């Protein structure tokens, strides 16, 4: 065989290997030098499984389950093991892995109104047996029509339908023993790479728990997120009613020319939810409370437009809303705290000028007219442009920002005077039965589009900063979300189809020679499953206009 040279970024040197060698072959040789077990590899900044064969010079970056793409590979592999465990316990049963909640992934089995603990115990025992057996995850590629027929014969109808609507010529799938399945990214080499997990009874289903990044030899532990769970399940029921539960059904809806109808219904659902929240705020206001409404949520959840639309609803209830954005109280960039990696930590509470905010808030509540700042994101400076605020009879103050639910922000304000709203894009659409659309991906795509259009930041920089954003959310936002008086799900079942063209244009700008290309490539592949919908169909008040442009609101 011909020798080829591959550059191993982990070792900082070139390796001479036989043409046709797999990544697994190389991993076995260098794992001792690296000191950690390898689960996948980025080949020319594209994530590949270790079965990938090398025939030309490449740049390699091997990763463990804790690094880069490793956690996603681990969870995908764990999901296939769960499917195999279900098949062993209940042949032909339809496993649904729906969304992330309470530190895990919510699962149910179609036809079971309540998954019994005895079945969960059996599935967990099956998972442990699979892990100990060290069975390989074997990748296969065949004509899409052949794979579609295979999935149909195995009862994997959602996967067969997706292949039919995406119209690809070839498709990849995996086998694990007698079980076949598809996942939209690489899997681990074998089941013995997946050794830390748990199954926990949760409401009428159960949670699939992966390893804890802070303590990798132990699984994640569930936390109470009943309000979050209800927000998800309310939208899942809506999806069931309109008959669009996964990407294949969405694609069929669009292909049939019904996208306008879907958009109209989804926008009406948002309006109804905001009206219901407005009525609750108004009732509390009339009883002498709720003088301040705090709207919080993670990055790119649509807080700003949600706040403006809520203000309109409050006006129809004869209140006079006054709006403040916490983003305008960012300290100047040179004073912004840094995270552990040295990046600016915009998610930190102390990225805000708390002293100035509290001084202004106190003056506002005393009835004084106060000059409001505007933060210039391109220059990284706070500016004063003549905007002022003064409360009047019947006024209610709306404060929007990621720290709205943090008690430290408004610790001097009596609790009865506050009404808290948590806004997030809780995506309920599934790719298929075993692959979900992560809410964090939806928000990242929103942010990539917005940053490029309005903040002078390209997709490469947005992707580079995203891990820091996510760490900040885990520390500063998510711990307070269950304190909300109301939750508003700002996602749309159709939104990735509408944002697809803008997102792909931004992602194509990420060069192939930077590490961020791996994430840009993954997102482009992810978006490829959606049939695009023109944003012209969106009303000017839509939350998506905050990111795509064309909004009738002033930002």
Explain what the structure shows.
- By secondary structure, the chain is an alpha+beta fold.
- 38% of the residues lie in helices and 21% in strands.
- The chain is built from 15 helices and 23 strands.
- The chain has helices spanning 23-34, 70-89, 117-133, 144-153, 157-166, 226-242, 247-255, 259-286, 303-316, 354-365, 439-454, 459-476, 495-507, 517-527, 545-548, and strands at residues 3-8, 13-18, 40-43, 46-48, 59-63, 95-101, 104-109, 138-143, 170-176, 179-181, 198-202, 205-209, 211-212, 215-219, 292-296, 320-325, 370-376, 381-389, 395-400, 418-424, 430-432, 435-436, 486-489.
- The strands form seven sheets. It has a five-stranded mixed sheet. It has a five-stranded parallel sheet with strand order 16-19-15-20-23, sandwiched between helices.
- Helix 2 (70-89) crosses helix 3 (117-133), helix 5 (157-166) crosses helix 7 (247-255) and helix 13 runs antiparallel to helix 14.
- The model has no long low-confidence stretch (mean pLDDT 95).
How do the strands and helices of this protein lay out in sequence?
Elements: E1 3-8, E2 13-18, H1 23-34, E3 40-43, E4 46-48, E5 59-63, H2 70-89, E6 95-101, E7 104-109, H3 117-133, E8 138-143, H4 144-153, H5 157-166, E9 170-176, E10 179-181, E11 198-202, E12 205-209, E13 211-212, E14 215-219, H6 226-242, H7 247-255, H8 259-286, E15 292-296, H9 303-316, E16 320-325, H10 354-365, E17 370-376, E18 381-389, E19 395-400, E20 418-424, E21 430-432, E22 435-436, H11 439-454, H12 459-476, E23 486-489, H13 495-507, H14 517-527, H15 545-548
Parallel strand pairs: 1-5, 15-19, 15-20, 16-19, 20-23
Antiparallel strand pairs: 1-2, 3-4, 3-5, 6-7, 7-12, 8-9, 9-10, 11-12, 13-14, 17-18, 21-22
Helix pairs in contact: 2-3, 4-5, 5-7, 8-9, 11-12, 11-13, 13-14
């Amino acid at each position: 065989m011909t020798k080829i040279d591959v550059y191993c970024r982990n070792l900082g040197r070139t390796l001479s290997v036989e043409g046709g060698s797999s990544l697994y072959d190389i991993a076995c040789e260098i794992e001792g030098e690296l000191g950690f077990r390898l689960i996948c590899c980025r080949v020319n900044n594209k994530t590949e499984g270790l079965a990938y064969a090398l025939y030309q010079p490449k740049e390699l970056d091997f990763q463990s389950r804790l690094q880069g793409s490793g956690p996603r590979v681990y969870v995908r592999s764990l999901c296939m093991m769960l499917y195999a465990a279900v098949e062993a316990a209940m042949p032909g049963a339809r496993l649904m892995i729906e969304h992330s909640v309470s530190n895990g992934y919510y699962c149910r089995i179609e036809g079971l109104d309540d998954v019994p603990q005895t079945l969960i115990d059996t599935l967990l025992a099956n998972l442990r047996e699979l892990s100990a057996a060290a069975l390989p995850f074997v990748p296969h590629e065949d004509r899409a029509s052949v794979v579609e027929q295979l999935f149909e014969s195995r009862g994997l109808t959602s996967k067969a339908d997706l292949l039919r609507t995406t119209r690809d010529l070839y498709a990849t799938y995996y086998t694990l023993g007698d079980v076949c399945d598809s996942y939209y990214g690489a899997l681990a080499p074998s089941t013995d790479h997946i050794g830390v997990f748990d199954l926990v009874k949760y409401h009428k289903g159960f949670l699939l728990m992966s390893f804890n990044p802070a303590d990798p030899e132990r699984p994640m532990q569930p936390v109470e997120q009943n309000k979050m769970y209800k927000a998800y399940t309310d939208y899942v029921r809506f999806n069931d009613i309109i008959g669009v539960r996964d990407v294949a059904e969405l694609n069929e809806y669009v292909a049939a020319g019904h996208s306008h109808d879907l958009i109209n219904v989804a926008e009406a659902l948002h309006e109804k939810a905001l009206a219901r929240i407005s009525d609750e705020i108004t009732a509390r206001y009339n009883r002498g409370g709720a003088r301040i409404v705090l709207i919080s949520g993670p990055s790119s959840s649509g807080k700003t437009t949600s706040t403006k639309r809520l203000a309109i609803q409050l006006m129809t209830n004869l209140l006079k809303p006054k709006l403040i954005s916490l983003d305008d109280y960012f300290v100047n960039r040179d004073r912004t705290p840094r995270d552990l990696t040295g990046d600016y930590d915009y998610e930190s509470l102390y990225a805000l000028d708390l002293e100035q905010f509290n001084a202004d808030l106190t003056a506002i509540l005393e009835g004084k007219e106060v000059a409001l700042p505007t933060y210039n994101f391109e220059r990284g400076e706070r500016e004063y442009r003549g905007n002022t605020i003064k409360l009047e009879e019947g006024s209610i103050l709306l404060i929007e920002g990621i720290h709205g639910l943090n008690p430290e922000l408004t610790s001097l304000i009596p609790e009865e005077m506050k009404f808290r709203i948590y806004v997030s894009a809780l995506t309920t659409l599934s790719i298929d039965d075993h692959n979900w659309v992560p809410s964090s991906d939806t928000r990242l795509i929103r942010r990539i589009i917005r940053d490029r259009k309005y903040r002078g930041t390209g997709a490469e920089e947005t992707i580079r900063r995203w891990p820091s954003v996510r760490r900040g959310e885990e520390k500063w936002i998510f711990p307070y979300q269950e304190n909300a008086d109301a939750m508003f799900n700002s996602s749309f079942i159709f939104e990735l189809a509408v944002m697809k063209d803008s997102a792909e244009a931004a992602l194509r700008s990420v060069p192939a020679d930077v590490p961020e290309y791996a994430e840009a490539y993954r997102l482009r592949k992810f978006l490829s499953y959606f049939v695009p919908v023109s944003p012209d169909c969106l009303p000017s008040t839509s939350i998506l206009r905050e990111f795509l442009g064309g909004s009738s609101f002033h930002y």
